[in-house]
Amino acid sequence: xxTRPIPSTGEALPVVGVGTWQTFDIGNDxxxxxxxxxxxxxxxxxxxxxxxxxxxxxxxxxxxxxLLGEMKARDKVFVATKVWTSGEREGIRQMxxxxxxxxVPVIDLMQIHNLVDWRTHMKTLRKWKDEGRIRYxxxxxxxxxxxxxxxxxxxxxxxxxxxxAFSIGQRAPEERLLxxxxxxxxxxxxxxxxxxxxxxxxxxGRPLPPVAADIGAATWAxxxxxxxxxxxxxxxxxxxxxxxxxxxxxxxxxxxxxxDAAQRRLMVEAxxxx
Length: 274
Ligand SMILES: NC(=O)c1ccc[n+]([C@@H]2O[C@H](COP(=O)([O-])OP(=O)(O)OC[C@H]3O[C@@H](n4cnc5c(N)ncnc54)[C@H](OP(=O)(O)O)[C@@H]3O)[C@@H](O)[C@H]2O)c1
Hints:
This protein is of the alpha/beta class. The chain contains twelve helices and ten strands.
């Protein structure tokens, strides 16, 4: 799988990860756990690393931690989770709980979820980074309406990552955030890269356009993910799935040719034609 450097350190990050919202929020039934374990195995075997979670996602952090423990995969994974609460003490308590649930003493990336009480948590995150409890600091959101706030924080604070929603069906970040990201050297995690699954509603039963063959996209999922990865300011996409066959499909988007600017325009035209 291709990698891209995290601008603040130069560390290489594989370009396709996995998101855990809903898809990893499951109970203790063994068949369900084994299915998610296979999702992680597919990710690691393809050279992927990033697993994104949050205390907002019910049991997803605990399920991820249990599976990483069973797989003894600490050295293979880049754990990203979030703080999603108000107040300094509550933030600290929640992050300690995430570390325990995910069974990692050091969290690779701690993000302020949907910018909730971000000024308070930013102070704690700086301290935790200095102390080596987290390796990177990030902020997240999922609405176009928050892009201006994300951009303003990138201009005023030193952060390592920004996570936001971006897909071929939701392209506002190309104008409103990615230029700022590139200027300030911030890594990006792309949430909702498949429009939370909604993109498939428009393409069901439709053949792939000719440009798909030129960029090695064999499925619509690969087409959608490669569209994002063709943008130079995109570091990693984190499609959510609980299904190994979908994970195999998604990781395949992380290697081979990525579309250039002209091909990305053709991809948008094909998408818009509907
Ligand atoms: N504010 C925030 O910080 C924020 C907000 C939203 C999301 N996120 C993060 O971003 C991640 C991704 O976003 P998302 O899960 O909302 O949306 P997404 O990745 O765009 O789409 C996920 C949906 O697509 C389906 N899917 C995945 N791969 C597929 C494939 N190859 N073929 C067909 N269907 C496929 C999944 O179902 P199956 O399980 O059936 O595969 C799931 O329903 C989340 O899991 C979460 O970690 C963060």
